[in-house]
Amino acid sequence: MWATPEQVREAIQGYVKLDVDFLKYGASGHAQMQFIQFSPRVQHIIIEEGHRAGMTVQAHTTSTESLDMAIEAGLDIITHCGVSGAGTPLADDVIQKMADRKVPCSVLPVTQRRLDAMLEEYSEQMVVGFMKTMKENHKKMIEAGVTMLVSTDAGIRNPVLASERTGAAGIETDSRVTLGEGHFNALVALQEMGMAPMEILKSVTSHSARAYKMDSEFGSLEVGKAGDLVILDEDPLADAANYRTINTVIKDGNHIDIDALPLAPLISSMTVKQTSEKE
């Protein structure tokens, strides 16, 4: 961020040669979310160089102004644009601009059940205020017709640490940051906020493929596209909870034996030390 615009251009030209699939930059801060990070002209340069390399470019935004600046700079995808602080909703005109220009946003929806649990146990923490405001923003985006992509901010959890979870309802209820589980909960949250059933389905299929300019390869059931399938027992358009009723998975043309899949986590960066009773 100390660099001149042309130094930033040189840095981006280096990044795109590193075998990356897309570029993402912080239009606003991460730990200090209220701050703008890159000027409008630098954002234009980042996006210009990303597009020159044939990549999609996305930005992390956490306020009305950072969101508006990123849209004006011409980016392809906005990351968690529903975040706007604790108690300051996104401006209606910026939400409408996002909808009118068809700029997709990956969102972090939480169920009302999770928000209620967080309010009960952590009402004084800032993150709860963020969640309440984010939910309000998501509702307004749905009403405005913004293209929304499901995301979770999830990662691979260390199974040793996971086994020591507190059991607190605010943490355990309808997790958003658990791979797989978080996606199921996000789909239910979108339904609670009034998103149309087909739009919910598209938020994890064709909308995502189109946002990354890969919809000619996958994202919908058409001849010539990759045909990974999840077949459900119940209609997800009737109830988003039915996305959990998985009957069959076909991956790369192969039927996956669901019953043979491991239930216990397999990845750990920690070594568990065996101790005696005395220790």
Written account of the structure:
This protein has eleven helices and eight strands. It is α/β, with parallel strands linked by helices and 279 residues long. The protein has a five-stranded parallel beta sheet. Strands 6-7-8 form a three-stranded antiparallel beta sheet, with no helix packed on it. Strand 2 (57-60), helix 3 (64-73) and strand 3 (77-79) form a beta-alpha-beta unit. The longest helix is centred in the middle third of the chain and has 19 residues, at 126-144. The radius of gyration is 21 Å and the shape is globular. The model has no long low-confidence stretch (mean pLDDT 90).
Radius of gyration: 21 Å
Helix tally?
A: 11
- The side-by-side strand order for the widest beta sheet comes to 1-2-3-4-5
Order of helices and strands: HEHEHEHEHHEHHHHHEEE
Helix content: 25-40%
Query: How large is the share of residues in beta strands?
Result: 5-15%
Output the structural class.
alpha/beta
The pLDDT mean sits at: 90
The number of distinct β-strands equals 8
Low-confidence segments, ≥5 residues, pLDDT <50? none
Tell me the distance between the termini.
50 Å
Largest sheet: 5 strands, parallel
User: Outline, from the CA principal axes?
Assistant: globular
